Each structure stands twice: as C-alpha cells, then as structure tokens.
Amino acid sequence: MPLAAEVALPARAILGEGPTWDDRTGTLLWVDILASRVHAYSPATGTDTVIETPQHVGAAKPREGGGLVLNLRDGVGLLDPDGGFRWLVEWPVAGVRGNDAAVDAAGRLWAGTMAYDVRPGGGRLNRVEPDGSFVTVLDRVTISNGIGWSPDGSRMYFIDTPLRRVDVFDVDGDTGLVTARRTLAAVTRGQPDGLTVDADGCVWVALWDGGAVHRYTPEGELDRVIDLPVSRVTACAFGGPDLADLYITTASEGLGEEVLATQPHAGALFVVPGAGAGLPTARFAG
Questions:
Q1: What band does 1 get if pLDDT is binned at 50, 70 and 90?
Q2: Residue 286: inside a domain
Q3: Which of 127, 156, 157, 188 is 20 to 30 A away from residue 217, measured at CA?
Q4: Is 23 among the catalytic positions?
C-alpha cells in the first residue's frame, strides 16, 4: 500500500521548515522562517507551542544542556531553558539570512545561509563549534539547504537547491572535514529542499514546487515517492516515540489566492505514520 501523508497540524505557515524530533520533550520542533517563529508540536496532545525569535529563523535544534540553538538572520543564537536569549556568534551580511541547519554526531552545528534575493553564490555553509568558533565549509552557495549524515557518519549529504541535485561528501568524523564532493542523485521533479536520513542510510528529500518527498537509496536510486496535496514541500524528519513517523513541513509563500484556494493545506505540517525508521536527533553541545 502506498504511503499516504495526512495533516498533523493545519497551520498556514509562510515558510515552514526544519522539522526536528526532540525525544526529551516528545515534541517536533519546526520553524516558520519569515514569521520569526519556532514551533514545538506535541503529537500526544495535539498542542503547538510557539516561541517568537528576534530575527528570521532558519532552523532550531535542541541543545545538550537544554534550550535551543537558532540559525538566525545575523548568526547563531542560544535560547536558554529559562527563555533567555544570547548570541553565540554573529556574522551579519546585508541581504543574507540563515536557512537550514543540522547537528552532527560530535555536537557541532552546520548552519547554512542564503541571500533574500536568491542571488547566485550569496550564501555559505558554516560549521559552528560549541564555543562559537566557526569555519566556512562551503562558500558561494546559493540556497544552502538539506544537510544530513549516513548512519555510520562516513558520508554527509547536502543540497544547494538551484543545482537540482543531492550531493554527497566523505567525512572525517573527528575534524568534520568534508572531501570528495559528488552527485548522489539528480532531481527532476521540482527542486530539492530539506532532507533527512533514515536508519537504512536512505535519503528522504522534500521537493519544493514538486509536491512530494522522494527517498533515494545510498546508491542514489529513487525507490519511494510520497505525494502531497500541496506544491511547496520544504523539509522532512522522522519523529514519534519510535521514530517511525515522517513529519513534513510545507510553505504558502509566494502562492497567489487562486492557487491557495486549490491548496487549502499549504503551510500545514503533515505526517506519514509508519513511514520508516529514523535516526536519533543529535544535540548541539553548546
């Protein structure tokens, strides 16, 4: 039987992104980038708690000591368990904001950026240490998007959306150094956005203007398609108590009233129950 997506939360997010399961709280963290909001959705209760952020927020990830790390417009900030906010590192660039981010097994944040006007080469991918020091891993990125690692940590997957492909690197787990960039899979349906990696090493990719999520094997073969009733599918992540449910964020940004009338769930949070087996969420060590 084909996997089917259903509405988990009937939100009308402008630009829903970055779903991440927090096993300590039993909630799915996700962001509405252009609304400057972090959401914490509880499947058990159906409640969705909203946290306002000081700037546009590309991603929010849990921290080892509690609270969240935020990939914001002008850098990376820390939200403490008591609600207090402080900057970890600032790197303001005119016309540029934070976008997708992910935490590796060593507790480092890989934080992407992009230009608001999507100018080619306007973004970067930075690797941020817990003390706030950082290095630029990739320069001249256009839309730094999905980031993930194979179960054994030997591979890193990355998406620069306009290239319309999923890339893979070899990884040195101790240093975080990535080498040997090559293409895992070309995407011909819409444009690739966020991604997640499952326990089998397969890569699930959300398709902006493609209305679907694709799963690719570690060899780059497309072996599963999940269609959604909205066109702007942005990111996906496994969640739930056994990490078996696939949560999918979507966007309503840029869709006119006529299109929105045919896509009433644009911007909603979707779920595909029992889609597969996810990997535990790594926490930022800072």
A1: low
A2: no
A3: 127
A4: no
Q: Which two tokens stand for residue 276?
A: 């597969």
* CATH number of residue 60's parent domain: 2.120.10.30
Q: For residue 56, tell me if it sits in a domain.
A: yes
Residue 59 in any domain: the answer is: yes
Close Cβ partners of 110 (under 8 Å, ≥ 6 residues apart): 101, 102, 103, 104, 125, 126, 127, 128, 137, 147
Stretch 60-70: mean pLDDT, rounded?
98
Q: What does DSSP assign to residue 162?
A: G
Alpha-carbon span 64 to 37, nearest angstrom: 21
The total number of structural domains that make up the chain? 1
Buried b (16+ CB within 10 A) or exposed e, 47-74: ebeebebebbbbbbbbbeeebbbbbbbb
pLDDT band at 3 (very low <50, low <70, confident <90, very high): confident
Cα separation of 233 and 197, whole Å?
17
Biggest distance spanned by C-alpha atoms of the chain: 51
CB-based contact 8:16 (threshold 8 Å) = no
Domain carrying residue 242: 6-272
Q: Is residue 277 one of the residues assigned to a domain? A: no
- Given the residues 167, 193, 198, 245, select the one marked as catalytic: 193
